[in-house]
Amino acid sequence: IHKGDKAPQAAGVIHTDFERGFIRAQTISYNDFVTLGGEVAAKEAGKARDEGKEYVVQDGDIMLFKFNT
Hints:
- The chain is α+β, with helices and mostly antiparallel strands and 69 residues long.
- The protein has helices spanning 7-14, 16-20, 30-36, 39-44, and strands spanning 22-29, 49-51, 61-67.
- It has one domain (7-67): Ubiquitin-like (UB roll) (Roll).
- The chain has 4 helices and 3 strands; from the N terminus they run ααβααββ.
- 14% of the residues are buried.
């Protein structure tokens, strides 16, 4: 992806259906992911956040895309 891309554009890099049906992206920073020991620990620590269509992807974001086709 490119600097300034929004979450739906990042999802579209994986598959165009992801961009077309984008709902939201659950996002965890890479640093939180590593420091806390993974996805479950980051969620339990409240470090996972839901981002919408206008979210500009940041370097180091780990994203789980929610979409509907």
